């Protein structure tokens, strides 16, 4: 009894390697850089120097706006160490109001305070600028008579700024 295995006429089995389907459909990936795909000019138009110039102009304008804001914020800080508040007011008549206010500032600095008289509709009916100099010291109290165009209902210190 032979099993059919004779050494003479039998061929050896062939080894077949299966390839993954994705390698058959697509070429191998290369590490060589490829140029960016071009956009069809008929569909998207062409990018010209105008677009680059517009981008440059917008960048410059934004940069200038940022610089202007930084300067403005820095100057705003310079007067933030000056504080003023009204202590009292008295409406004398239709043409004048007396305002008493205090100022706190660096002793060696001169400021100008704007004192306003306001109507019942909050309109400014009188304005007086009051200089407060270094001789007044760091804290001082001032009394000013504000001439008005019509009867006021209140008197306030609007602002004090470096002179």
Kindly describe this structure.
With 163 residues, the protein is of the alpha+beta class. The chain is built from 3 helices and 6 strands. It has helices at residues 21-25, 41-44, 49-78, and strands at residues 83-93, 96-104, 111-118, 124-132, 139-147, 154-162. A hairpin with a 2-residue loop joins strand 1 and strand 2 (96-104). The radius of gyration is 43 Å and the shape is elongated. The mean pLDDT is 81. Residues 1-47 are annotated as: Disordered. The chain crosses the membrane at residues 56-75. InterPro entries: DUF4307. Residues 11-33 have a biased composition (Polar residues).
Based on CA inertia axes, which overall geometry fits? Answer: elongated
Mean pLDDT: 81
Please tell me the CATH architecture of the domain at 83-162 by its name: Sandwich
Radius of gyration: 43 Å
């Amino acid at each position: 009894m032979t099993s059919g295995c004779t050494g003479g006429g039998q061929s050896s089995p062939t080894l077949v390697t299966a390839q993954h389907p994705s390698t058959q459909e697509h070429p191998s990936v290369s590490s060589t850089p490829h140029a960016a795909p071009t956009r069809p000019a008929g569909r998207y138009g062409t990018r010209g120097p105008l677009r680059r110039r517009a981008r440059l102009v917008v960048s410059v304008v934004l940069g200038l706006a940022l610089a202007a804001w930084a300067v403005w914020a820095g100057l705003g800080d310079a007067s933030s160490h000056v504080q003023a508040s009204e202590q009292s007011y008295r409406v004398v008549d239709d043409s004048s109001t007396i305002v008493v206010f205090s100022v706190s500032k660096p002793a060696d600095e001169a400021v100008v305070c704007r004192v306003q008289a306001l109507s019942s509709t909050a309109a400014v009916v009188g304005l007086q600028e009051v200089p407060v100099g270094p001789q007044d010291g760091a804290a001082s109290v001032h009394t000013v008579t504000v001439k008005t165009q019509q009867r006021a209902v209140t008197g306030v210190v609007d602002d004090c700024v470096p002179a």
